[in-house]
Design brief:
about 150 residues; Arc Repressor Mutant, subunit A; 2 domains; two-stranded antiparallel ribbon; 2 strands
Length: about 150
């Protein structure tokens, strides 16, 4: 997703380019891309110049949405999940003395992830090497993340 964020606005990025840039197996990225596409986070384009691209600007995609799509509910324990379909998996939740701890951990993690967008993980384009060596990086736009964002 960070690579797609870096490539945002320049058309689809191929999984081969992303795999090379991140040193990850293409087959693994294909699995992730299908999940992200089904979650509505990325769109795919077929053909010689096809690939994947973000469906929304990076600043409009909270990290919590990405992690929920890839990992499921944000909960340290199943009894603290906020997913309705998992609510009744533990019959002891109402009387459990540590459930409050797990709910607070869940809420703290969710709050941190809700408060951070993909754009914060994407450095300004002027600092990047293009995915395609022959392509020139476009000029920075006003959609750049805040200075000091993680690289």
């Amino acid at each position: 997703m960070v690579q797609l964020g870096r490539h945002y606005g320049r058309g689809p990025a191929s999984l081969a380019e992303i795999a090379a840039a991140e040193d990850l197996p293409r087959a693994y990225l294909e699995q992730l891309a299908f999940v992200l596409r089904d979650a509505g986070l990325v769109a795919s384009t077929r053909g010689a110049h096809g690939g994947y691209e973000l469906r929304r600007p990076p600043q409009d995609i909270p990290m919590s949405e990405i992690l929920r799509a890839l990992e499921g509910p944000l909960a340290p324990m199943i009894c603290a999940t906020d997913a309705p379909e998992h609510a009744d998996l533990c019959g002891r939740t109402a009387s459990c003395t540590v459930n409050l701890l797990w709910v607070r951990v869940r809420d703290a993690v969710a709050g941190a992830l809700d408060g951070m967008t993909l754009a914060e993980l994407v450095p300004p384009r002027s600092m990047l090497v293009p995915l395609e060596p022959s392509a020139a990086a476009p000029e920075p736009t006003s959609n750049q993340p805040l200075e000091g964002a993680l690289t």
